[in-house]
Amino acid sequence: MRQCYLFALIVFAGSGCSSPPPKPTTFPAIGKVQFTGGKPFVGGVISFTSTADPRLVMEAPIADDGTFELSMMHGDQRVNGAMDGKYNVMVSSKFDGRNAVKVYMLPQPYSIEQKSNELVINVDSSMVKK
Q1: Which backbone phi and psi does 126 adopt, to 5 degrees?
Q2: Which of 43, 32, 33 is nearest to 93 (CA)?
Q3: pLDDT digits (tens, 9 = 90+) for 51-85
Q4: pLDDT value at position 114?
Q5: Is 14 helix (H, G, I), strand (E, B) or coil?
Q6: What are the residues whose beta carbons fall under 8 Å from the beta carbon of 12, sequence distance 6 or more?
Q7: The predicted structure's pLDDT at residue 98
Q8: For residue 128, which of 88, 86, 92 has the smallest C-alpha distance?
Q9: Residues 66, 31, 108, 103: is their CA dihedral positive or negative?
Q10: Residue 122 forms beta bridges with which residues?
Q11: Which of 4, 33, 48, 65 is positioned for an S-S bond with 58, CB 3.0–4.6 A?
Q12: Which domains, ranges and CATH numbers included, belong to the chain?
């Protein structure tokens, strides 16, 4: 019986709390979503999914003037900015109760660089995912 307690104590002590992984290095990433021709994309969500690791996703709500500021989750906390790398970009319209949500898949990846990033994302009807 004493061995069981000792074993349980060793297992419990070995599974103690570890420190969280370090906060990732991010870079400011702001931008504007607009239709080809310059009309702002009103509302919705933009997401950037890493081409190297699809588990790595940065996202942002799109304001009514088409602007956004990317952020990402790190554990249970939201971190402003984006990690550098190449990303597939998806833009989703907001649900308004009358029309179906449209999802736009951009044909080419976008890059986030190790600097302050200002992005202009142009969408058109040919990018709507069917």
Answers
A1: -70, -15
A2: 43
A3: 999 999 999 999 999 999 999 999 889 999 999 99
A4: 97
A5: helix
A6: none
A7: 81
A8: 92
A9: negative
A10: 34
A11: 48
A12: 24-127 (2.60.40.10)
